[in-house]
Each structure stands twice: as C-alpha cells, then as structure tokens.
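Quick question: who can interpret this fold?

. . .
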Amino acid sequence: MIPRYLVDFDLQSLPHVHTDVIVIGAGIAGLFTALKAAEQHKVMMVTKKSLLDSNTRYAQGGIAAVISDEDSPDYHRQDTLIAGAGLCSSAAVDVLVHEGPDGVQDLIRMGTEFDMEDGHYALTKEGAHSQRRILHAQGDATGAEIVRALSERTKQNEQIEIWDDHFVIDLITENGECFGALVQKPDGQKVFVRANATILCSGGAGQLYRYTTNPEIATADGISIAYRAGANIRDVEFVQFHPTSLCYPGAPRFLISEAVRGEGAVLRNMNGERFMEKYHPQLELAPRDVVARAILNEMEQTKSTFVYIDFTHESEETVKHRFPTIYEYCLNYGLDLSSDWIPVAPAAHYMMGGVETDLYGETSVKRLFACGEVSSTGVHGANRLASNSLSEAIVFGRRIVQRIEGLPPLERTPVIREVLGRNDNAIQPVVEKRLKLQKVMLRYVGLKRNAQGLEKGCEELKRHITIYDSHLSKREEYEFANLLNCALLTTQAALARQESRGGHYREDFPEKDDMQWQKHIIFNRVNGTTEGRIDDV
C-alpha cells in the first residue's frame, strides 16, 4: 500500500557525500545531539528549513529536571508514570529522571541562560508535577533561549556541516541496516549522504490537524520515513492536545503555556462560569487530556468555539515579568493578559508515540537512531508529563552519542535501483489535499473518537493513496505523502485500541481497560501490526 521509497532513483548514478553522522532536524534534539557527536565525529546536519525553525523554539514552560533539594528522582519518576497512564517504560523513565540534571548542566555549559532568583535557578511547577522542578528562561521563552544558545554553538563548530533548505526524502537501507539518506537539494538535485550513523530528530506531527501549536514544518516526516525504512512505529494513537491555545480571529494558534495555570489562572466558559471542579479534583492543573476534553465539553454545551483563561487576579507587573512573550503576543491582537479574559481552545500539540527505540535511542533498523518528539523511548506512555520533552531530547541525545562510539565503520554502499515508473499525472494542488486531510483528522481522530468516525476517517484518508503512484518532486508533495502515511497509522491505531487512556479517548469505550489494553500497538511495514508488552510498571 505504501511503497518502500517515495521516488524513483538509481543510487549508483547519484552524487555521494560521506560523513560520520547525519542528523536530520534542528530542534533541541538535533542541535544538542549534533554538538555532542561533533566532539568525536564529523557531523552533517540536514534541516528542511533552517536552524531556527523547530517546535523547540515555541516551548514556553521549560525543562523538567530534579535540581532542588526538596525534590527527588523518585518524585519525578512517580509523576511521569502517573501521567503516562500505565504505558510508560519504567526503565526509560528511570533513565530520564536520573540523567536529566546532568543534561541540564550540559545545556548550561553550552551557553543556555536559565532564569535565576536569589542566586538559585528559578523553578516553577506545572500541571501533574508534585514539586517545583521546571527551569525556564526569560520567563516563558525557554525553547527560544535553548535554540539560540545551541544554534550559535552549532554554527561555530567546524566539525558540523549544516545543510539548510534540504529535504530528506527517504533513508537508504539494506537487510535491516541504514546506510544514510537520500536528500533533495534546494535546486531539486538528489544526493546520497552516506553515514555511519543516522539520527532522526525531525520533530512531531502537529500538521496532521487543522489546529495546532506546531509550526508549518511539523509534518510527521521522521515517523513516515522510518516506517518506510522498516522501523517499528509505536503508540501513535496517543496525541496530546494542548488545552489552551489562543483562539482569536486572525491569530495563529499560539500556545498559552500550562505555566499560566500553574501560576493560578482559571478557566471560564462562555457564561463566565469556572467549570473545572465538575471534571477533576486538581481543577485547572488536572492532566492535559482531562482539561482539553473538559474544555471541549463546555464548548459543545455553550455552542461556542472557545472558553476563556482568566489571569486577571495577578498584577500587571507580575504578568509581564513572568510571561513576557505571551503578554506581548496577546497584546498584538488587542488582548491584555493582565486585564482581559483570553479566548482559548485545544489544539494538537505533541505526539506521544513515534519511532520505537531502545534505551540508547537505537531503532529496530541497525545504525538508525531517533531522538526527541519523533521517537518513542517509552518515557511518555499514553500522556506526556509537561516539560519532560526537552529533558528527554537531551538525555537520549547523550546516550545515542555513547552508543555511536561502538559502531564499526561502514565498509560498503548498497546497490539500489528503485524504478516503479510512477506516473506524471497532475497532482491536485497539495494545499487542498493537506487541508482535507487535516479536517478528516480533526473531525474523526481528534479529542473524542468512536468506531464509526474512525472507520469513516480511514476510508476518506485511503482515497488519497494514489499519491504514492505519482511522480513527486516538491517539498510540499513529500510532506503530504508523509502526513498521509502517519495519518493512516494514527487512525488505525485509534480504531484498534478499544479503551480510553491518556491522550486517546473513545466515546464508545470510555473506560481504561488494563486487562486487555495495557500494551503497545506497533506498526511495521514488513511485519504488519503487532503488540508490545509493557515492562513491569
């Protein structure tokens, strides 16, 4: 159904470029891993836009790590396992909570400036965390500060060659081993980059949905190219919708950080009523999936397209100091966070699942690694704990580089000719196709799902499958092919999982069912769908 390669090519006749390590993507996972790898190796960094375009840049809340004496790895572990709703790998969570603090020290050494208070790092608390353990930068611009520090370092590093505006079409594999990547240059020319190790750091899949906090580039490329290359794809039914993204005419879906609720903001429906006590004892700081569905319920009941977040009890000074980015952004649209109720609605935010890896970031394809949101390390389970994503990228980035040290050099280049004779039929403008796909996902595979809707969604998505028989040549065509690939997997997984857990909610199976469903759904292009057991939780 989905071909092994998206385009026809003959590897022998393409230009070859050799490097030690190829890093695909430029968020925190890509930048950090490239810098660590460059201590010993030549690194090629391929990004489809630029070093400053990634989800990381939009991360506001911060990075979770045990820094304070009142906190402990055990507390952090427990909070992560509870949020993950029974699907976390306890071994992966142990790695995260114990190695996170060292990773943060690495970031600081690389020039990241976190906010200080009285000579100590300023720590904040977010939903479902039992302790204050979130480091932040410039109030609510943590991601932007990390990207600033790391990208400056990356540009100055002579061991790292950066290819901006290049698109990785597919990974080159033979007999379950990865030899590098097929890359398209800005002028359309294709080139084979051969590498001893290939690291996917290509981010998430927010563009599967009509409304998302993710940038335009989050088109599920990594999950889809890894799937075509034979890697295991796990847990993709678990999509986290951020409960509070700005919902205002003319404004993009901008994130109103969970930390705003952490600092005491409350949610109100169209009628001005505070409503979270009807849904959860932790009120506004309940797990994200609970808050997002509560908001959806209120929107349905009041026939409205948004609810309000109310932070007006805080002084203007406090608001400006703690959330300068959010304050400024809202002001651009005539909304004052300190005196107005801000209209918000849920938006697709984070993919919990992805390319399955072991504790050293290696996938089921030899020499292929995955790090950051594209990966499924087992840390997030069915629902990611706020601010664990940045720490995960650093902790597993470090481990991948350790693992690469032990790889023997590649001795050969495979001989591959892919000739399917794809047709040159004019493809319906991809913009239209993409919008249709996003609407299908929003309607049938969103915050609330049921069998009938998911089956309908599958049917509608399958109508687009002919794109794989077409001759693709542009970035947006590849992106659509990747979105379609991931959308089908997500919809099939959501249909298969007949229960509700974490970021996956079925109206027809509203309860969690540990007897039947405390397990992973794993897709493999060659072996089909299988189930993965949980290590003892």
Observations:
- The chain has a mean pLDDT of 93.
- The two ends are 36 Å apart (CA to CA).
- Residues 475-496 form the longest helix (22 residues).
- Residues 207 and 448 are 18 Å apart (CA to CA).
